[in-house]
Amino acid sequence: MTVRVRVTMRGGLTVRAGNDDAEPRAGTLPTVPAAARRDPYPIRTGHATAGESHCVAADTRWKSVNPARSGRIFPTRRAGRSNQHMKRNILKYGVIAGLVVAACMWATLLVFGGNMPHGVSGMALGYLGMLVAFSAVFFAIRRYRDVERGGTVGFWPALGLGLGVSAVAGVFYVLAWELAQATVVGDFAGQYAASALAQAKADGADAAALAELGAQMASFKQLYANPLFRLPMTLVEIFPVGVLVSLVAAVVLRRGTPRGAGAVGATGL
After folding, report:
1. Which of 98, 184, 195, 252 has a beta carbon 3.0–4.6 Å from 169's, enabling a disulfide?
2. List of residues 6+ apart from 245 with CB closer than 8 A
3. Kindly report the CA angle at 206 between 204 and 209, in degrees rounded to 5?
4. Are 118 and 217 members of one domain?
């Protein structure tokens, strides 16, 4: 017995089972040369086994299907390629974003002589570098939409891609900060505590408030010396910014199935 599979433009493939030597009956799908059809997808022919048919083309792997229960099968290669493209974009643009944010961090340290600026100015410089780095999220989603997805992408895939890029960039940010502490920064927690106490004195805090703040800073220095506290704290500095940028990018760059495309976009073919 031979199983003929024809790719349709309305959501998948149609399986026809029959005898190789039998003449086509009314209502069946004859084998037509590929050059004579406008359908860009050729009819693929394979041999059925007991209860299951496995149709394997030269460049495509198909899921097995029981012809008695279903007349349609769907290709797995397109979905697999889409996932591979997404993972490659996450890695590529995540590394780019991570290198940019690490470069911004080190540039700030070099400008200020190895001391990370505190207060509003330090926060502004830090978040400005993060926003510049996370512009890679927009490029990643736009490339995935226009190149790998044929001009369409949903909100959730775009958001997942953006979060993946943000996670990779966050890892680079944490590693860059650990390297900076081990080389040029030194005792960041001590510097931060001294800066906070100096700012409180400048603001006119009394002795009781200063004593309370000093106790808090001593507790902070003890906690910051523990990597299990320091590493997640460093990641939390950057990852929420990536989440926000990913949400904005997913809303701005999402694009549904073009009008007239039928069910092809809905099935992912």
Report:
1. 98
2. 131, 134, 137, 138, 162, 166
3. 110
4. yes
Instruction: Please indicate, yes or no, whether residues 49 and 85 belong to a single structural domain of this protein.
Output: no
Q: Which two tokens stand for residue 253?
A: 């760059």
Q: Give residue 111's domain range.
A: 80-256
Instruction: Work out the mean pLDDT of the chain and round it to a whole number.
Output: 76
Q: How crowded is residue 257: how many other Cβ atoms within 10 Å of its Cβ?
A: 15
Taking each helix axis from N to C end, the angle separating 227-253 and 207-224, rounded to the nearest 10 degrees, works out to 90
- Whole-prediction pTM value? 0.65
What pLDDT, in 10s, does the model give residues 156-193? 999 999 999 999 999 999 999 999 988 888 788 888 88
Q: Are 161 and 45 found together in one domain?
A: no
Question: In the numeric block, which tokens belong to residue 16?
Answer: 């026809």
In this predicted model, what pLDDT tens digit does every residue of 109-146 receive, in sequence order? Answer: 888 877 777 778 778 888 999 999 999 999 999 999 99
Distance between CA atoms of residues 61 and 49, nearest Å: 16
Sheet holding 12-18, edge to edge: 44-47, 2-8, 12-18, 72-73
Q: What is the mean pLDDT of residues 250-262?
A: 72
Quick check: is 137 in a domain?
Answer: yes
Mutual orientation of helices 77-111 and 119-133 as an angle, nearest 10°? 150
- List beta partners, residue 18: 2
Residues 51 and 134 placed together within one structural domain of the fold: no
Residues 212 and 90 in one domain: yes
